[in-house]
Design goal:
By secondary structure, the chain is an alpha/beta fold. It folds into two domains: about 5-425, no CATH class; about 505-730, Rossmann fold (3-Layer(aba) Sandwich), CATH 3.40.50.1110. The protein has a five-stranded parallel sheet with strand order 5-4-8-11-12, sandwiched between helices. Helix 3 (about 55-80) runs parallel beside helix 7 (about 160-180), helix 8 runs antiparallel to helix 13 (about 295-315) and helix 10 packs parallel to helix 13 (about 295-315). It is elongated, with a radius of gyration of 31 Å. It starts with 5 loop residues before the first helix and ends with a strand.
Length: about 725
């Protein structure tokens, strides 16, 4: 989100001897364009379903910023023979930093006193990145999806400010190097070069093939994984095309100095181009989705071009109708305050829970945002931007200045102390699925495998073993004798007449990697006490993913979930198995497999042949990848779900999840897949209580949102499946 730049934009245009303006001067229509864009962004942040693409308003601001900043640099160089970098950066920082720091201090103080544990953890991470205008890189390195489940951060919106501030730091340096000459042919070459760079960036974003999956973390001093889709949306490189196109326009599009006054009659072509551009932007605001591949393949470049067209027409002297519309007093007033509105509207909307498409909450948030941002505009932004602070300070008498200085230092120290306590007490990572209420103990007796299962893995000689001597108690680690009896209960196996496959009984603890969606994650992080003697679990889950890398799950409630961020999920499962040294992979899915799916502009209905085949093919890819990694596969039965609306869940209570018939159909498909892969895959039945005992199924103490397990729920599941997991034969390598 660009700043208004009124500190340099309000001067009157100079004129040449021919009477034509030599400088752009203040263009109120650009403030109107800002207003148009910031309103779209605010509606998008409010979560209205008819404004899914309002985030494109940020791209409009990028184009405006590239055009305006470069025009100002060109005019300063033409007027003074060079660019005063120090003054340029002082003006930018004087315009940007005071309002940003004010917002961060106020919101941070509120969060420290009244915020949730999740907000504490988020701000612990976001504060240093935000203060350094590196918020976009902080979000990239966080490995959390910008659009993923869970409550979004109070400072999530700072990424776009970071992109622009980095542009303000780097572009003037590049400008001085590239634009040393003033000849028109030089400007033409520069413009073409910038356009070419913008096209290359847009092409790379559209292909999405060269963006990294690992990057060097500047604070950890090591390579860390990054989400490629996060990188596409947030990085300075991938979002530079709008800034570059705006800069290119500034070199070649100067109609105020090239169009004679006699020819400034109404231009039908210009007006039509502007109306078409506005139409394109409105359509993009409505249909765009931040996680959809179409956004990066063609919508984002289209929005960038439409934004450039609109900016070009708004500053053209002949486009009287368009200029008048975007220069209307309300539009200009909103545009001049767009920076503050952007800064304050999002955290206030989060505080008011006004980000889920609720009109009453949205109106409440705007009723708070308007006076707060106006106060910041009048008493922080404007005075400091105009140099009023230094004037006021120099006018104070000596003793008065010392009192003010001491009071300011004391206030800053007090706030810094409050925020320091906040940072120190916050958890480094907040996970809504993590149960911190207390410990529950695993019952070791549950780790006795079924007799029929063990008979398939005992060596082909007569053997009789009794479990009577086992002294393992609930929550305790097994002894050596208990370990033996746990995998070989009392049974007699007749001598084999054929050579048995090379397999081994479970060596305790059995190494298991849990893969799947967020239900797998909640199971992996809420292990009951005492289970580590029987199992060593690793977490290979991918939140929001099942066995798909494309398409969108569609609920009857209108909620959608795109799988476009789940690329290479099967390789990530296999990598997790290898990384943890697992013998067995427990596949825990189902939360995203009970929906209709929108794929390639078609809807695959649940329980349709096409929908079933898509699921079967996906699970088979996962089985194949895990088998290739050298592990056996266990498909966990999907439990009956009782979804409930819980604050912080990120996903509402979707009726499809509560449909037991849908769950049963998914389980039938999983059983069929296990039967089709008998040498590698086993279907494991889960606890029956989730389908037969409503007091347990609907108890949020077992599953915190009716879907994801807490510790009692994890204990229930793991005790139900422990014996079966230990009985699965593992090939001897």
């Amino acid at each position: 989100m660009t700043e208004a730049l009124h500190d340099t934009g309000h001067r009157d245009a100079g004129h040449s001897e021919s009477g034509r303006p030599t400088s752009m001067g203040y263009q109120p229509g650009l403030d109107g364009v800002r207003a148009f864009s910031v309103v779209a962004v605010i509606f998008y942040h409010a979560g209205f379903s008819w404004m899914h693409g309002g985030f494109f308003g940020v791209e409009v601001f990028f184009v405006v910023s590239g055009f305006l900043i470069t025009s100002l640099l060109i005019e300063e160089r033409d007027r003074a023979g060079g660019v005063n970098l120090r003054q340029f950066w002082v003006r930018r920082w004087r315009r940007l930093l005071p309002a940003l720091f004010t917002m961060m201090i106020v919101v941070g103080a509120w969060a420290a006193v009244w915020g949730s544990a999740e907000q504490h953890s988020q701000l612990r991470h976001d504060y240093p990145w935000g203060l350094g205008y590196l918020a976009n890189w902080g979000q990239i390195f966080s490995q959390e999806s910008y659009w993923g489940a869970g409550s979004p951060s109070l400072f999530r919106h700072l990424w776009s400010l970071a992109v622009e501030e980095q542009w303000y730091v780097l572009w003037p340096l590049a400008f001085i190097l590239l634009a040393r000459r003033t000849r028109s042919d030089r400007r033409r070459a520069l413009a073409l070069g910038l356009v070419a760079m913008g096209v290359m960036v847009a092409t790379a974003v559209a292909s999405a093939a060269q963006w990294p999956t690992r990057m060097w973390h500047p604070f950890r001093m090591e390579m860390v994984p990054v989400d490629p889709t996060n990188f596409l949306y947030l990085s300075t490189f991938s979002r530079s095309s709008g800034l570059l196109l705006g800069a290119a326009m500034a070199f070649r599009w100067r109609p105020w100095s090239t169009v004679p006054a006699a020819r400034r009659s109404p231009a039908v072509g210009l007006q039509a181009a502007a109306f078409a551009a506005v139409g394109v932007l409105i359509v993009a605001f409505v249909i765009g989705r931040v996680e959809a591949p179409a956004t990066y393949r063609w919508l984002l470049p289209t929005v960038t071009i439409a934004s450039a067209v609109l900016v070009g027409v708004v500053v053209h002297p002949a486009a009287a109708t368009v200029r008048a519309a975007f220069s209307a007093a309300p539009m200009v007033a909103i545009g001049r305050r767009s920076y503050g509105l952007y800064l304050w509207s999002w955290p206030i909307s989060r505080i008011c829970d006004a980000y889920s498409g609720s009109w009453p909450r949205f109106l409440l948030a705007m009723a708070v945002t308007a006076p707060v941002s106006e106060a910041c505009y009048r008493w922080v932004e404007t005075p400091i931007r105009r140099g009023g602070l230094s004037t006021w300070w120099s006018a104070r008498r000596r003793w008065s200045g010392r009192i003010v200085q001491a009071s300011t230092v004391a206030a800053v120290v007090a706030v810094a102390g409050l925020l320091s306590v906040f940072f120190a007490s916050a958890a480094a990572v907040f996970d809504p699925a993590k149960d911190t209420s207390g410990e529950v103990a695993f019952d070791g007796a549950a780790a006795t495998p079924p007799v029929t299962a063990v008979a398939t893995v005992v060596p082909p000689v007569a053997a009789t073993t009794s479990v009577a001597g086992s002294s393992t108690s609930a929550g305790s680690e097994p002894t050596a004798d208990a370990a033996a009896t746990a995998v070989a209960p009392s049974t007699t196996v007749a001598p084999a007449t054929t050579v048995a496959p090379s397999t081994t009984l479970a060596a305790l603890p059995r190494r298991v990697v849990i893969v799947g969606d967020s239900t797998a994650h909640s199971l992996a992080i809420n292990l009951p006490a005492g289970i580590d003697g029987w199992f060593e679990f690793g977490d290979g889950s991918l939140d929001g993913c099942s066995v798909y890398s494309d398409g969108t799950a569609v609920s009857a409630l209108g909620f959608t979930r795109s799988f476009d961020g789940c690329s290479r999920w099967e390789q990530r499962w296999a990598s997790a198995a290898t990384r943890t040294g697992a013998e067995l992979a427990l596949v825990v899915i189902g939360a995203w497999d009970v929906f209709d799916v929108e794929l390639d502009d078609q809807v695959l209905a649940f329980d349709s042949p096409a929908g079933d085949q898509r699921f079967i093919d996906g699970v088979q890819r996962g089985i194949d990848a895990l088998t290739f990694a050298g592990v056996r596969v266990a498909l966990l039965e999907v439990p009956c779900m009782r979804p409930q609306n819980v604050k912080g869940a990120g996903v509402p209570a979707l009726p499809e999840r509560g449909d037991d018939a849908r769950v049963a159909h998914v389980n039938d498909l999983l059983r069929d897949l296990a039967a089709a892969n008998p040498a590698t895959t086993t279907f494991v039945s889960g606890p029956t209580q989730y389908c037969t005992d409503e007091s347990i199924a609907s108890d949020l103490g077992y599953r915190w949102d009716g879907v994801h397990a807490y510790k009692p729920g994890a204990k229930l599941t793991l005790e139900a499946i422990a014996g079966a997991l230990l009985a699965i034969p593992i090939p001897v390598s």
